[in-house]
């Protein structure tokens, strides 16, 4: 589950270890937490000086420090580490859920978004790319979410996600999943996503261009759309039909829609018969190796009794 993966992530991050957390190196250790030390006869009690928060932070930030954060660490790692220095009580127990507004759990083997995620009451961005999620229940998502990224999972059904979706969601990423059209098109409307600005549906198995466009047209705030990698993107009039059908769209398949392009395709939306469910594929063979060149064979004499060998070749394309 996502909750268990997050707890494992915290253990690996070591928020209670020097220079983070509570200990003799900061004042929080001395405010009622310090255990009395035993001094042998004839010895003096030695109290180590405490470090300032600035000095502890420098140990995290200085690349020459043995406690320095890796250069490629995420902003989430850096935030939690620094909070654990400045206010260690905030990353202790359930309080850590209130610190994060953005949670990134990529390639952690997550299969389920469980009810424990609701503890992130301030969460606005949830990145769950490259996991093993096949279904996601919207009742387990914080209502504060504005970004939900599920790229490279196994999502094939949106019904549970749309049962009670976060009302303020602005970006929904479903690229590289298992969505099949037209059964899932009905969940991509303004009734479910009234504030959606960006939608990524790339590299799924969506096939019904006309049906999908009729649903997407209800997304009044949609400005960014990615559909490349679906079978419907092979239709010859695909881009022009979308550009003319969704006049508020600004970016399609990572390409800006300019005034010239919109003028070029003006009126195409009123000719749906041009968007037929067929594709045209042009294949150019540049070079073939291991095949004898017929022009290099010597011509046989007319009356020669030598056997004639005929070779035929074929190429198979699988889609």
From TrEMBL:
Q: Which controlled-vocabulary keywords does the entry list?
A: Leucine-rich repeat, Repeat
Quick one: signal sequence residues?
A: none
Keyword Repeat part of the UniProt annotation: yes
Q: Which InterPro entries match?
A: Leu-rich_rpt (IPR001611), LRR_dom_sf (IPR032675)
Q: PROSITE patterns under this entry?
A: LRR
Q: Which Gene3D superfamilies match?
A: Ribonuclease Inhibitor
Q: Does the keyword Ubl conjugation apply?
A: no
Which terms in the GO cellular component ontology are assigned?
A: cytoplasm
Give the protein name, as stated in the record: LRC43 protein
């Amino acid at each position: 589950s996502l909750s268990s993966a997050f707890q494992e992530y915290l253990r690996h991050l070591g928020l209670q270890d020097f220079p983070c957390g509570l200990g003799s190196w900061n004042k929080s250790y001395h405010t009622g937490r310090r255990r009395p030390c035993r001094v042998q006869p004839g010895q003096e009690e030695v109290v180590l000086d405490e470090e300032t928060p600035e000095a502890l932070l420098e140990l995290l930030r200085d690349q020459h420090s043995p406690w320095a954060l890796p250069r490629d660490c995420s902003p989430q790692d850096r935030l939690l580490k620094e909070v654990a220095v400045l206010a260690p009580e905030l990353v202790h127990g359930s309080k850590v859920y209130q610190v994060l507004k953005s949670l990134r759990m990529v390639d952690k083997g997550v299969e389920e978004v469980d009810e424990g995620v609701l503890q992130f009451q301030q969460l606005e961005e949830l990145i769950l790319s490259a996991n093993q999620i096949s279904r996601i229940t919207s009742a387990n998502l914080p209502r504060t979410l504005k970004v939900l990224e599920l790229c490279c999972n196994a999502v094939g059904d949106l019904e549970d996600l749309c049962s009670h979706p976060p009302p303020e969601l602005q970006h929904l990423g479903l690229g590289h999943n298992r969505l099949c059209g037209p059964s899932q098109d009905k969940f991509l409307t303004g009734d479910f996503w009234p504030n959606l600005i960006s939608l990524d549906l790339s590299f799924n198995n969506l096939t019904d261009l006309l049906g999908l466009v009729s649903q997407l047209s209800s997304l009044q705030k949609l400005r960014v759309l990615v559909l490349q990698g679906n079978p419907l993107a092979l239709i010859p009039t695909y881009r022009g039909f979308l550009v003319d059908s969704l006049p508020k769209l600004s970016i399609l398949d990572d390409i800006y829609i300019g005034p010239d392009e919109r003028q070029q395709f003006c009126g195409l939306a009123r000719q749906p018969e041009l968007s037929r469910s067929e594709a045209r594929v042009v294949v150019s063979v540049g070079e073939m190796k291991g095949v004898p060149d017929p022009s290099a064979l010597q011509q046989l004499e007319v009356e020669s009794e030598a056997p004639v060998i005929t070779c035929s070749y074929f190429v198979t394309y699988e889609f």
